[in-house]
Amino acid sequence: MHFKSLSLAALFTLIAAPALAEEDAAEYGSFGAEVSDGSELVAYNSFLEQLKVSKNWPVISGFREGATLDSFKGFSMMSGMYAKMVKENGGAEIPEYTTDVLGLNTLAGYRSYAQTHMGDPNFKPTPTDCGAAFVFVYPAVVSTLLFNQRPVYSTGLRKSQDQWNEMAYRYAPLVKSDFASLESLCAGSDPKVVSGLQALVANLNSDVAGVLPDVDRDYKISNYPYEAIISCGMNGQNMNVQACFKDSALKLTTHEGGKLYNIYNILQAGSMEKDGLHIDLPKEFEVAAQNSHNILVLTVTIKDSDGKTLYSDQQGQYGTVRVSN
């Protein structure tokens, strides 16, 4: 899954979606006090609906240093969405920062500016400073929160769990620093600008769990609409998948290239269930599996996202099942 073409146009499309075009209204109330069930949090609830679509994740969580959307224009557009949420969550007065008068340009530029002035005992923040902090900190913090939940959806990359953990470990102190900079640069402004981010993060940490089953389903259907089930047994019963590949291999070929699996690593190709090894497949694929067992039968079945069987074949010793789309 790649997002090389991700751009400000994609961000504009997301923000301009009807679900995010609700008018602000003073009577929305707040997350924890005036609204008990969240039903009147129009912008916030619409945001949760957008999170159910996997293609939105790299846009919403694309606000990291060096990412495609790391520009003042990108942050400014995204922060407008969060401004709606903060306003309906208690009506904070958010200082405007519609043009980059401080010349920050990127998230790194903002962080450098904030750290320099936070260390100056004579620094007195202005509304302009608070406006800039809002523009950069809100998208950056939410980006990291979503990254921690589903890094693959957020980045479009595939890495080992250790690599994801290393990235999360690296982002953690940046979030803490960004929170501190928001507090510092908004010290003379409406305190709800800071408490609004705290409330947003608290609610997202609670509510994102309810979104994940939907986005997981959407991600699989969008990116892996097919599934191969590899079984090795007798009389239609799976017994031991590894046994069929003692002296042979399973080869999976996708747009990312080909990969061979044998008795030693075949379980890494997917997830083992009672009926066999389940392997998620993209729209274009080729599966080639040879059976090397002299008794057990190798079966390869391809199903779509609705569970409908599209293909199924069996082979005995030295026979090969080959299927592609």
Helix content: 40-55%
Distance between the termini: 18 Å
Q: Would you report the number of β strands? A: 10
Number of domains: 2
Profile the largest sheet.
Answer: 6 strands, antiparallel
Mean pLDDT: 87
* Uncertain parts: 1-8, 11-37
In DSSP terms (H or I, runs of 4 or more residues), the helix count works out at: 9
- Rg over C-alpha atoms, rounded to the nearest angstrom: 25 Å
Give the overall form: elongated
Determine the strand fraction and express it as a percent band.
15-25%
Order of helices and strands: HHHHHHHHHEEEEEEEEEE
Label the structural class: alpha+beta
Quaternary arrangement of the chains shown?
Answer: single chain
Description of the molecule:
This protein is α+β, with helices and mostly antiparallel strands and 325 residues long. It has 2 domains: 8-221, no CATH class; 224-324, no CATH class. 42% of the residues lie in helices and 17% in strands. The chain has 9 helices and 10 strands. It has helices at residues 8-15, 42-50, 57-60, 72-88, 107-118, 127-149, 151-155, 161-185, 192-223, and strands spanning 226-234, 237-238, 250-254, 257-261, 271-273, 276-281, 286-290, 297-304, 309-315, 320-324. The strands form 2 sheets. Strands 1, 2, 5, 6, 8 and 9 form a 6-stranded antiparallel beta sheet that branches. Strand 8 (297-304) and strand 9 (309-315) form a beta hairpin. The chain starts with 7 loop residues before the first helix and ends with a strand. The model is unreliable at 1-8 and 11-37 (pLDDT under 50).
Q: Would you summarize the structure shown here?
A:
With 325 residues, this protein is an alpha+beta fold.
